[in-house]
């Protein structure tokens, strides 16, 4: 992927030219020219990020979080299956209803087998974003396609002024319709299945989950991602998470098909190597 | 899950299989679903493989110069039930001319053994991997359900009902040989109206048809996707050379036809949905919904039983 950076344009040099022009001209429109030019330059300074032909931020690239949010969204001490980390939930804890909190604790106890990610199922939203495997964003004017390495499944974020289809629909990634608010992509996600988890600590949601995501550039190689999760069946109030996503810049880095749900039966399909090959039992 | 999704998509994908017992049931369910859907395929049923000649591209181009072939497409002939031909469809093997896979003797025995046990899979290896939701291998997805092509600078992306393929146009070297993948790893470039693709890294575990044809992880695979200038058809041709399994090169030819807003939805070839817009004057459009398989198919057809 060629990143079409808009290079910094030597703003200092151009300011000097502009000042020189203002001093040396007596044209009646000179003040207006200076103001307009300064405004354009201010815009350029904010625009040192990849942009699409339409002028929106271009999130194309391969992204991944650092940290261990997927092991548990809330802050945690060291566990046998995860290092300690500070959590990504604003305010520290997820505002569960009492019965839902009990369910989360049951999920946590059973996580080694009950976590859907262990079966390589589609990760869902927002989990795909902070799961510790890369995903690639392919961007067109009408949509963004997120291809996750785990499960090698695609999620589409529609940016074509379309509406959610009539639900409920049990999508694994939800149904995503988005609008640009300046340089921030705001995504409305509904129509979820209840079968995905939010992390490997058993945090969960119901089919009533409503996610509002905000995607923007921190700099050309870092995305700021935040999500608000609402679910009146499971939480007492909306809550927020925030993570940064880093661009993979290793030479020739790519997403590799990881349909790991096949690994349990791969053994039954040996590569036939010779006339003597016999079926496995 | 809503009844809409259940009716439109669930039957079109393979059952979730978590045990051998389920796997055995799954094979039967797939057979049933395949024949039930045939009656709905009229708009796409053709008797011959529509030919498209390689040449210049005169149609619309993307900003980076690629022919713009984006959108929804589907197979026009048969499916994996009749890969080498039946009364209702010609063989998709167009070289050799007899329509049969040029197997080495031992490999023919293996394929026939698989086919003989398909509906009585007394061992796990007789369950078609596709029925377990494994990706179909490079060619098979083109003769299955409808699919979508999306294009980007440096990439052509195929979103299949049975997996995703990314064709790299960016000149990256192929992955190391030790990485083996169901759908392989693809490098391509455009020659006029033809996308020319080298497929590497296949794991050699997929089957072309339910009659058991296969190649090994040693296969050399060269694909050509030739698009007509009217945007209505393209011809997929893949040449397989495999000294471990075949006695001669084999060409697989599959024709695809474009799905438009006018195409009738049939739950098989055309599994798109009309898009709703707030603006009632907005031009009509179609979209495909999320494509999953292994996740969605517990209690498939109310036949398979989850443990």
Walkthrough of the structure:
- The complex is a heterodimer of chains A (281) and B (307).
- Chain A is of the alpha+beta class.
- A 9-stranded mixed beta barrel of chain A has the order 1-2-3-4-5-6-7-8-9.
- In chain A, strand 8 and strand 9 form a beta hairpin.
- Chain A is globular, with a radius of gyration of 24 Å.
- Chain A starts with 10 loop residues before the first helix and ends in a 34-residue tail after the last strand.
- Chain B is of the alpha+beta class.
- In chain B, the strands form 2 sheets. Chain B has a 9-stranded mixed beta barrel.
- In chain B, strand 6 and strand 7 form a beta hairpin.
- Chain B is globular.
- Chains A and B meet through strand 2 and strand 4 of A and helix 3, strand 4 and strand 5 of B.
Largest interface: A-B, 60 and 66 residues
End-to-end CA span of chain B? 20 Å
Strand order of the largest sheet of chain B: 1-3-4-5-6-7-8-9-10
* Mean pLDDT across all amino acids of chain A: 87
User: Which stretches of chain A are poorly predicted, pLDDT < 50 over at least 5 residues?
Assistant: 1-15, 272-281
Task: State the helix count of chain B.
Answer: 3
Main pleated-sheet profile of chain B: 9 strands, mixed, barrel
- Work out the helicity level of chain B: 10-25%
Q: How large is the share of residues in beta strands of chain A? A: 15-25%
Percentage of residues in DSSP E strands of chain B: 15-25%
N-to-C order of helices and strands of chain B: HHEEHEEEEEEEEEE
Measured on Cα atoms, how large is the radius of gyration of chain A? 24 Å
Shape, per Cα inertia axes of chain A: globular
């Amino acid at each position: 992927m060629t990143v079409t950076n808009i290079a910094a344009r030597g703003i200092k040099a151009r300011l000097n030219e502009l000042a020189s022009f203002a001093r040396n001209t007596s044209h009646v429109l000179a003040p207006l020219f200076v103001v307009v030019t300064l405004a354009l330059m201010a815009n350029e300074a904010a625009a040192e990020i990849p942009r699409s032909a339409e002028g929106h931020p271009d999130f194309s690239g391969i992204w991944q979080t650092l940290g261990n949010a997927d092991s548990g969204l809330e802050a945690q001490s060291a566990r046998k299956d995860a290092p300690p980390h500070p959590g990504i939930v604003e305010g520290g804890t997820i505002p569960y209803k009492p019965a839902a909190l009990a369910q989360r604790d049951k999920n946590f106890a059973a996580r080694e087998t009950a976590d859907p990610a262990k079966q390589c199922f589609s990760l869902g939203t927002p989990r795909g974003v902070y799961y510790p495997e890369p995903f690639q964003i392919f961007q067109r004017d009408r949509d963004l396609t997120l291809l996750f390495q785990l499960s090698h499944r695609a999620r589409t974020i529609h940016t074509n002024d379309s509406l959610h289809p009539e639900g409920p629909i049990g999508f694994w990634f939800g149904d995503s319709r988005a609008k640009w608010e300046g340089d921030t992509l705001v995504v409305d996600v509904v129509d979820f299945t209840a079968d995905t988890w939010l992390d490997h600590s058993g945090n969960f949601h119901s089919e009533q989950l409503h996610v509002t995501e905000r995607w923007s550039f921190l700099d050309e190689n870092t995305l700021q991602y935040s999500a608000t999760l609402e679910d009146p069946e499971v939480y007492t109030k909306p809550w927020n998470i925030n993570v940064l996503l880093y661009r993979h810049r290793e030479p020739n880095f790519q997403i590799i098909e990881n349909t790991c749900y096949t690994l349990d039966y791969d053994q039954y399909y040996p590569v036939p190597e010779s006339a003597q090959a016999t079926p496995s039992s | 899950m809503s009844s809409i999704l259940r009716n439109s998509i669930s039957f079109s994908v393979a059952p979730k299989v978590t045990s051998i017992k389920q796997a055995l049931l799954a094979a039967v369910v797939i057979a049933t679903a395949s024949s039930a859907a045939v009656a709905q395929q009229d708009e796409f049923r053709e008797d011959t493989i529509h030919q498209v000649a390689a040449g210049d591209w005169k149609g619309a181009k993307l900003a980076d110069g690629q022919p713009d072939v984006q959108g929804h497409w589907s197979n026009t002939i048969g499916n994996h039930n009749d890969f080498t031909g039946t009364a209702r469809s010609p063989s998709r093997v167009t070289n050799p001319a007899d329509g049969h896979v040029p197997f080495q003797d031992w490999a023919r025995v293996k394929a026939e053994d698989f086919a003989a046990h398909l509906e009585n899979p007394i061992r796990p290896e007789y369950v078609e991997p596709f029925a377990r939701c494994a990706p179909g291998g490079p060619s098979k997805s083109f003769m299955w359900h409808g699919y979508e092509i999306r294009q980007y600078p440096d990439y052509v992306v195929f979103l299949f009902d049975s997996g995703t393929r990314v064709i790299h146009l960016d000149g990256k070297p192929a992955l190391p040989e030790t990485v083996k993948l169901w759908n392989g790893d693809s490098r391509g470039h455009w020659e006029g109206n033809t996308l020319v693709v080298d497929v590497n890294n296949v794991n050699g575990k997929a089957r072309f048809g339910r009659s058991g044809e296969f190649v090994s992880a040693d296969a050399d695979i060269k694909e050509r996707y030739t698009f007509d200038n009217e945007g209505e058809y393209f011809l997929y041709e893949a040449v397989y050379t495999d000294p471990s399994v075949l006695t001669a090169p084999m060409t697989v030819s599959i024709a695809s036809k474009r799905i438009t807003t006018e195409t009738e939805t049939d739950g098989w070839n055309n599994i798109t949905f009309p898009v709703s817009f707030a603006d009632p004057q907005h031009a009509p459009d179609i979209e495909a919904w999320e494509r999953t398989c292994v996740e969605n198919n517990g209690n498939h057809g109310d036949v398979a039983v989850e443990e």
